[in-house]
Amino acid sequence: MSGKPRLTYLNGRGRMEPIRWLLAAAGVEFEEKFLETREQYEKLIKDGVLIFEQVPLVEIDGMKMVQTRAILSYIAGKYNLYGKDLKERALIDMYVEGIADLMQMILMFPFSPPEAKEKNLESIKERATNRYFPVFEKILKQHGQDFLVGNKFSWADVQLLEAILETEEKVPAVLSGFPQLQAFKTKMSNMPTIKKFLQPGSPRKPPPDDRYVEKVMKIFKW
């Protein structure tokens, strides 16, 4: 195995996408192994690799890491994207957790039954525009800095940009009332490592389609 982190998941966004985002933002190249069958997943469990019987799995620095939050925290700390002290880390954690609540709604949207899709889409729009994005608009406006915490690029900035872009895929005009977030999106998207990740051919995955949903349900027996 090379020195690159190795990511094991399906060939789609899911819970691995924030990990891909964070590694890419840190300028770290990684390898991916895609699960295609239920048997591959069961073998990982049988071999004791997935201690909680769940993916994502990230092999990094001699560890086989599971649990998305633990993986993200490790990567953020390793690549200096986790603040300069405990107070900054606490703010980053707080912001990341808030963003994750919105991302969970987006993550589960493709698995909504057809009759619930319109209602769930409206919920994403309502939560983004009335609960989550106003918080970050206010933070950026009050401190007048480019980044959310300590005027330094952090995990929170990466996660917020991912959330903005994925929400815009569902609700294109969602930032219309948020000028600070519009400026933030432009600045973050033009950072060299992120700009590279946003280009065609990068490891960034497309929005989940029906085939991806079917594969998830088949492998994990949802």
List the helices and strands and how they pair.
Blueprint: E1 6-9, H1 17-25, E2 31-34, H2 38-46, E3 57-60, E4 63-66, H3 68-78, H4 86-108, H5 114-143, H6 155-170, H7 179-189, H8 192-197, H9 210-220
Parallel strand pairs: 1-2
Antiparallel strand pairs: 1-3, 3-4
EC number: 2.5.1.18
InterPro entries: Glutathione-S-Trfase_C-like, Glutathione-S-Trfase_C_sf, Glutathione_S-Trfase, Glutathione_S-Trfase_N, GST_alpha, GST_C, GST_superfamily, Thioredoxin-like_sf
Keywords: Transferase
Walk me through this protein's architecture:
The mean pLDDT is 95. The chain contains nine helices and four strands. The longest helix has 30 residues. It has 222 residues and is of the alpha+beta class.
The tally of structural domains comes to: 2
Q: Give unreliable regions as ranges.
A: none
How many beta-strand runs? 4
CATH class of the largest domain: Mainly Alpha
Q: Classify the oligomer.
A: single chain
**What strand order characterises the main sheet?**
2-1-3-4
Distance from first to last alpha carbon: 32 Å
Biggest sheet overview: 4 strands, mixed
Rg, Å, rounded:
18 Å
Counted by DSSP, the helix tally is 9
Secondary-structure element pattern, one letter each? EHEHEEHHHHHHH
| Strand percent estimate | 5-15%
Mean pLDDT over the residues? 95
What is the 3D form? globular
| CATH fold call of the largest domain | Glutathione S-transferase Yfyf (Class Pi), Chain A, domain 2
Give the fraction of residues assigned to helices.
55-70%
Secondary-structure arrangement, i.e. CATH architecture of the largest domain: Up-down Bundle
EC number: 2.5.1.18
Protein name: glutathione transferase
GO biological process, one term: glutathione metabolic process
Domain GST C-terminal: 85-209
